[in-house]
């Protein structure tokens, strides 16, 4: 257990700065990161799901998800702010769910994903809201959170909810295939799909919200 945790820490320290720099830099570097990640996730999904019907649907969905992420990064002058906000919500949702679930335990959420608890769901919401508020007050995100209001609050809840649903859906397919992880490309983490399962579902919804100006329409 300690060995796996150490691997997770080391791989995070190495990979996270590369990912952040690529996203912030944009252009060619961002595109290469996106293509590389897309191919890995596609490969992991191909190995995970054996039924052709679901496999084909999954392939189209993954393509649309990564395309949505690309469009969000290039949608406007505030695209980087959009990405930072989106990733902050997803990552803090994951951390909050894991921490609260491990510490508080309590009733299970669903048989589909036995490790998910109701306390974890609540923790995901709480930690994502707190994290975004901290960033908001540090003035790190300018455009998206210029005036934090009910719309911002609802946006966080929607993205956090979708991220958690995505996590459960991929857990369901892993359970059907009787595997713990979707791969082993990330030491201590498992597969790339294991790490971005919630984001895969968040990207398309977030793109539609931003592209249709739903987010700004109610502000």
Walk me through this protein's architecture.
- This protein is mainly α and 219 residues long.
- Helices cover 75% and strands 4% of the residues.
- It has helices at residues 2-25, 27-48, 52-73, 79-104, 118-137, 150-176, 192-211, 214-217, and strands at residues 108-110, 113-117.
- It has a two-stranded antiparallel sheet.
- The longest helix has 27 residues, at 150-176.
- The chain is globular, with a radius of gyration of 17 Å.
- The relative contact order is 0.14.
Task: List its salient traits.
single chain; 219 residues; two-stranded antiparallel ribbon; 75% helix; 4% strand
How would you briefly describe this protein structure?
The chain has helices spanning 2-25, 27-48, 52-73, 79-104, 118-137, 150-176, 192-211, 214-217; strands at 108-110, 113-117. It is mainly alpha-helical.
Order of helical and strand elements: HHHHEEHHHH
How many β-strand runs?
Answer: 2
Q: Count of helical segments?
A: 8
**Order of neighbouring strands in the sheet with most strands:** 1-2
- Average of the residue pLDDT scores: 82
Structural class: mainly alpha
- Roughly how many Å apart are the termini? 47 Å
Helix-residue proportion = over 70%
Runs in which pLDDT lies below 50 for 5 or more consecutive residues are none
Topology of helices and strands:
Elements: H1 2-25, H2 27-48, H3 52-73, H4 79-104, E1 108-110, E2 113-117, H5 118-137, H6 150-176, H7 192-211, H8 214-217
Antiparallel strand pairs: 1-2
Helix pairs in contact: 1-2, 2-3, 3-7, 4-5, 4-6, 4-7, 5-6, 6-7
